[in-house]
Amino acid sequence: MDFRSLQLFKHLATSLHFGDTAEAMYVSPSTLSRVIQRLEDELGCTLFKRDNRKVALTHSGHKLLSFSTQALKDWQQLKADLKEDTEALQGEISLFCSVTASQSHLPAILRQFRQQHPGVDIRLITGDPALSIEKIKQKQCDLAIAIHTPDLPTDLYFSPLDNVPLVLIAPREWRLTQLAQINWTQHQVIMPEHGPTRRIAYHWFAEHGVRPNVYASVGGNEAIVSMVALECGIGFVPKVVLDHSSMASLVTQIAVEDIEPYALGLCCLQDKQQEPLIDAFLKLDFIPRG
């Protein structure tokens, strides 16, 4: 028994006419008769009642019709699935992001990507977000969750994901709740060593005529939260970092309405933008957190 024999049988079981089935299935009537005889010999039963006037299915024929219908349907589905597997994206793509972004934004991105492209392996690299642009430039990763800056190199492509506000935090024990309570000559400030938070914070200080009394410069926004929680000073951090910090309960947020947020997005080299794996990532319908 083979699928071609089942196709011929199924058509005949529907048409109940040897001539019509032979014409429709592009076989001779004698070939069709031999196929049906071979099926009957193999199964050890009669599939059709035949006389000079009509053809009818036997009880055994009805059972084989049910079987052949499902078998042929499964066969077609299998072929479609195998074709889809062959055409599906395959390979590996490397992605760089901060530990915070791997918790806040990456899960939703990867969930969509894995659903659409299960054959692609993802290599995740985490580190200081200030290094994301350099990682892309040095081709140490294919994509990065990065922060847009005014001096973003022209050979990079940036696809926005979300706007991330900055918040000013102070040690909870200091009981500072309003901006007016801060004495900028006395309250020391924890600053990042580099990156967009440093740029935005210094821009805000300049606009308000403030010369910050810097206690320390640290690597990474997470370190700022830790230093503030340990009562070393106050500092600006991205709200998403504070939301995912285990030390958030030890600091107080102070409202600062006029400090600019920064744009978070997927970044890659311009000349790699159309590569299939990178293009698939950039086409994800990601919904910003809010």
UniProtKB/TrEMBL annotation:
Record-given protein name: HTH-type transcriptional activator IlvY
CDD domains, A to Z: PBP2_IlvY (cd08430)
PROSITE patterns named among the record's database cross-references: HTH_LYSR (PS50931)
Record carries keyword Transcription regulation: yes
InterPro entries linked to this entry: IlvY_PBP2, LysR_HTH_N, LysR_subst-bd, WH-like_DNA-bd_sf, WH_DNA-bd_sf
Boundaries of every HTH lysR-type domain copy: 1-58
Keywords per UniProt: DNA-binding, Transcription, Transcription regulation
Family: Belongs to the LysR transcriptional regulatory family.
Organism this protein belongs to: Alteromonas australica
Keyword Secreted: no
Any matching Pfam family: HTH_1
GO molecular function, one term: DNA-binding transcription factor activity
